[in-house]
Model the fold of this input.
Amino acid sequence: MRKLVIGLEIHIQLNTKNKLFCQCPVAFGDTINTNTCPICLGYPGALPHMNQEAVRMGIELGLALKGNIQQHSYFERKNYFYPDLPKGYQITQHSAPLVKNGFLRIQHKKIRIEQIHLEEDTAKLTHEGNFVNLEVDFNRSGIPLLEVVTKPDIESPDEAVRFLTNLKKIVEYLGVSSGKMEEGALRCDVNISLSSTGKHPHYRIEVKNLNSFRSVYKSILFELARQEEFLNQHQKPISETRGFDDKTEETFLLRKKASAYDYRYFPEPDLLAIHISPEEIESIRNQLPELPAQARKRLMEKYGLSIIKANSISASRTLCSFFEQTNALYPDPKKIVNWLLTDFFKNLNKYNLTLLTQKMKPIHFASLLRILDSGSVSANHGKQILEIMMKEGLEPEQIIHSLHLTQENNPDVLDKWIDMALAKYPKEIRVYQSGKNNIIDMFVGEVLEISLGRANPVLVKSRLETRLMKKSTDKGR
Ligand code: ZN
Ligand code: MN
Done:
């Protein structure tokens, strides 16, 4: 029996105000090469200086992952050549990282963490094929990264994705990164080997720079099949670094593995070591925000949500606080959650919105729910109003007014519409009276159509029943 042995290295882009070693802003989507200076462009002789905010974020993530914050850590130079790194080395932590050990739970299993360290991001390269039409964007150069390195405790593609999902939630709750894989804020390298039971694998394949949960999953499946093939033929796979092609869903050779020696690590002479006192660590620990697991527990205890619903709502801090703000104004948690997990999510997908780009405010959502309770607007119109609120951010009253969506409850008005419907179908009235009572839904539908959807269907149905009964007694007389 062979077993998958997987370890992850995850680079998390921090959303500090400034870059790690200079004053340039950390911003995304700006014109290329506008947020640069001699330090992040790698000019010889430019001196880096440490960004305290990045260190603090590293400590926060370390504490959230139950790691040991090191009172003494320092930076080193990792020497290599690549067009995204003009100074010829990356400033990173190697021998003395900021955080050692820790773990992250995925369901009932603990995935141990080896270390978390700080390092600078490189410039961003865009090119076709073999560096044709190469574009280098130094806006990314020097953005702080936290690299989380796990122990090889992961045993399946599912576990890898679960680990990443939980880690992404934690960084979002801490507010240290957007965690958006599609934007490169969270990038994952996967180390994959196969071991025969009880034995340690003697090789390691690293698949680099995966930027979606799906490619992490697919690359592991591909490597499992590829490495099995080797082992079945009694060959040992060669340790190497590979890339992943999203289209073919295959990994491909990038380079043979460089040993640590090749990078010629040595302490960065231009930066002081980082010293953190136990008091500083304690004070950061005391100010840690609520984390996803705590939020989920609270949602279950305080609002009586099921574990599945609490899990969905606590998946994002933004969603959790949207829920709680709405609940403060409309204290029926279950109803709110039902709307959020069905129509609200449906609209996010339908209109390609996110929790941050949709425009409905909790106060307006709460008034929509109250309006629906009052019966002045139909449930179907409620869904339509929700859509408009999420897209355009109007108040529900405005939408109801401008689209004439008020539900009609006035018996006189309803009777007028009912008359019109009954007049259209004399034959069907007799069918109803002959005992086929389910035909009443046809009449209700007709009234709704005549009223352009404004008639209150519950009232219409009960009035129709009385009317049709009356008609049959009339006839009997
Ligand atoms: Zn700079
Ligand atoms: Mn790294």
